[in-house]
Specification:
Layout lengths: L12 H10 L45 E6 L9 H8 L2 H4 L2 E6 L6 H6 L5 E4 L1 H9 L4 E6 L6 E6 L14 E4 L3 H12 L9 E4 L5 H7 L3 E5 H11 L3 E5 L13 E5 H6 L1 H20 L1 H11 L5 H16 L10 H13 L9 H4 L9
Parallel strand pairs: 1-2, 1-3, 6-7, 6-8
Antiparallel strand pairs: 3-10, 4-10, 5-8, 5-9
Helix pairs in contact: 2-10, 2-11, 8-12, 10-11, 10-12, 11-12
Amino acid sequence: MKANKLGALLLSGMLLLAAAGCGSNGASGTNGANKASGSQEPASSAAGNASGSNGESSAPSTDAKDLKDIKVVLDWTPNTNHTGLYVAQELGYYKEEGLNVQIVQPDEGGADAMIASDAVPFGISYQESITQAQTQGVPLVSIAAVIQHNTSGFAAPADRNIKAPKDFEGKRYGGWGSPVEEAVMKSIMDLQNADVNKVKIINIGDADYFTAVKRDVDFAWIYYAWTGIEAELRGEKLDMLYVKDYSKDLDYYTPVIATNEKEIQQNPDLVKAFMKATSKGYEYAIAHPDEAADILIKAAPDLDPKLVKASQEWLSPRYQDDASRWGEQKESVWTGYANWMYERKLLDKPLDASKAFTNDFLPES
């Protein structure tokens, strides 16, 4: 779950080339209501009909020849951001909708390129990368918010004495080389009359947070649900500065479930069926975090079971949080963050939010 690692704001040329083949020849669905990786190796996807560990029976078996084969691509290695997908697969929710879903890892071009080019119909993305994509004519569309509020922020070992953004001055920040990092840092440091130019920014790429803060840097950007919980389990105290606590515009959706405009235009029934089953998967994870964690552990046995259990317990109530239903997205969140990006010259032009997201395929609450 490295925060925004695969959703960096500057989309690669590969993404743009892939999307060019797909084309953007129409509006996406309209929105009716107007977002610290594990280092585990990719896990094979679990097949779909076993019972959940709470004794709940999965859906009756459907002849495989009657199912439509589709793939959904992750943004990173399996983690608790993805639990609902694995639950929907394991408990037969996808099969109930006539789908045989394979959960796959992104190739070198990344998940966004695979989704935009229609190599896969669905995948995990981020509000910031979809915003950037849409303003560049790349036809990515968000169809659900996995987590209702931004759980990412700047984290530091407690002994670095970083209690507020002003304390970034004179410290070493370890990031992945995206302009958004310095922009967010500057934005929250300005509130305390601090100078972002006094921060030494170091590109640590895919380096593990715990290794990096012991060796190279003082703080980094993480998702608390994974790296923060891991720190708790290790007994390593850290100070966490959630970016959403400093600006409502930074309370964006990360991650999200994405598709492309072609799927919405040509296969709306497929999108609806996929989202009906996926919603059930996340709703199950909200109601049964322990059993849902077991399903993720079964699908990705290389994960640390203690970390998965603790992370799932922390994250499950945050999937839906204060929204009326899981996955709901607000236009104000999309426009607020896009305007923030545009004002800081992270976008070439303003975002038309109506093309970037839709709630139309979520089941009624």
